[in-house]
Amino acid sequence: MRLATIRIKGIETASIVLDDYVVTLGTINEKLNKKWETNILSILQTGQLDGINSWYRNGGKNTLGELKSEGILLSAATFGPLYRKPRKIFGIGLNYVDHAADLAEKAPSTDPASFFKPDTTIIGHGDKIKIPLQSDATTAEAELGIVFGRECIDVERQDWLSVVAGFTTIIDMTAEDILRRNPRYLTISKSFESFFSFGPQLVTTDEIQDVMKLNVATVINGEIHAQNLVANMTFPPDFLVSYHSKVMRMYPGDIISTGTPRAVHIKHGDTAECRINGFASLANPVIDKKITTN
């Protein structure tokens, strides 16, 4: 199953994605007498995802086909981020050796280079990435995102999928010139408004045959600048889920952004994009606040 958040008259609402259209959870509740949450984070926090997915896989998908006239064409939909208030967003730095070489740094080999991002950085598909006034060298980084579906602690690697709701596309931004001044400036360099694009779809784990075979590509203006397989991560998804759950308790909706094959400098007028095979593309136009505030 694939979930998305779409904007209707300024309100963001959860939807189920079919081939070329979406049906909102509100419409499903009304037409099929369901009582599901209409916000993806609330769906995760209340434990409803498994029930919705089970319904979808056991006839619900066909039922939604009968509601196509009540749906919204994907081509006409405006997407928001999947949700806006996760308790935690973890980023993973230099998780591909190639990316470490970009920054002339040694890739971590014993523990992942984890950092936090605030939820005020979150934007959705089609929203503007804003290069801040303080930066003349901002980068965009395509990444695979892991979304937690259950509260958990001390998860073993072999059990990692039991606590994961699904996966998504992410574009993470860095004010690289600020970071280069001092590695202790990592938090500031990662925390500007619009520096975390998130969505447009949450793909449940049963939709992905082998996460290690996913190919993650950083794309600027339609050109692939870097791509790599998840299998080439220093710390793969199962390790990241287990490792972080052994540091702190994880909650539904918490996110791990697993690292990028390469960061690419962006400028005013660019379009940054994350492409992962089997996922809807995530793309955002870029503006430079030194040029415009619109």
User: What is the CATH class designation of the largest domain?
Assistant: Alpha Beta
Q: Strand portion, in percent?
A: 25-35%
Structural class: alpha+beta
Classify the fold: give the CATH topology of the largest domain: Fumarylacetoacetate hydrolase, domain 2
Give the overall silhouette: globular
- Radius of gyration computed on alpha carbons: 19 Å
Q: Can you tell me the residue ranges where pLDDT is under 50 for at least 5 consecutive residues?
A: none
In whole angstroms, how far apart are the ends? 36 Å
What is the share of helical residues? 10-25%
Order of helices and strands: EEEHHHEEHEEEEEHHEEEEHEEEE
Mean of the pLDDT scores? Answer: 94
Helical stretch count? Answer: 7
How many strands in all? 18
Biggest beta sheet summary = 13 strands, mixed
What does this 3D model show about the protein?
With 294 residues, the protein is α+β, with helices and mostly antiparallel strands. The chain folds into two domains: 2-76, no CATH class; 89-288, Alpha-Beta Complex (Fumarylacetoacetate hydrolase, domain 2), CATH 3.90.850.10. 19% of the residues lie in helices and 32% in strands. The strands form two sheets. Strands 1, 2, 3, 4, 5, 6, 7, 9, 10, 11, 12, 15 and 16 form a 13-stranded mixed sheet that branches. It is globular and about 55 Å long. The relative contact order is 0.19. The model has no long low-confidence stretch (mean pLDDT 94).
